[in-house]
Design goal:
By secondary structure, this protein is mostly helical. The chain contains five helices and two strands. A two-stranded parallel sheet has the order 1-2. The radius of gyration is 27 Å and the shape is elongated.
């Protein structure tokens, strides 16, 4: 007499074999053939992205670098980062203007405020 485990495993194996046989149809069409070129030289760097909501404190950038993460997106309420409008023009620059000229943003200011927030955290008010 076979145990329930043996019968279950045998049934799963049969179903997997049938599934592979039925669903692994290989068809080649001339228009789908691509050439892949292998090179010893890197063509670029893939984005390794992670993000967080309100996730801007209590982590070490070296930990992210050790993981190979090269893009870190955060969301935080702008009222804490920019309590007063820095240029006096609401909605300026527009997204299209930034895409046309990314240097329209004072990146040094934002790098400084995000890296060294007032009182050490944008949650200075939270206790």
């Amino acid at each position: 007499m076979f145990s329930k485990t043996i019968i279950r495993n045998f049934t799963i194996a049969i179903l997997m074999a049938l599934g592979i046989g039925l669903f692994s149809v290989t068809t080649t069409f001339a228009q789908n053939i691509e050439t892949i070129k292998i090179s010893g030289t890197a063509a670029g760097v893939s984005t390794r992205y992670i993000g967080a909501v309100e996730g801007n404190i209590n982590f070490d950038i070296k930990d992210l670098q050790d993981l190979g993460i090269n893009t870190y997106g955060i969301y935080g309420g702008m009222s804490r980062w920019e309590p007063e409008d820095d240029d006096g023009k609401y909605g300026w620059p527009s997204i299209d203007e930034i895409k046309t000229n990314p240097n329209i943003i004072n990146w040094a200011h934002w790098d400084q405020i995000m890296t060294n927030p007032p009182l050490g955290s944008d949650y200075w008010w939270s206790g």
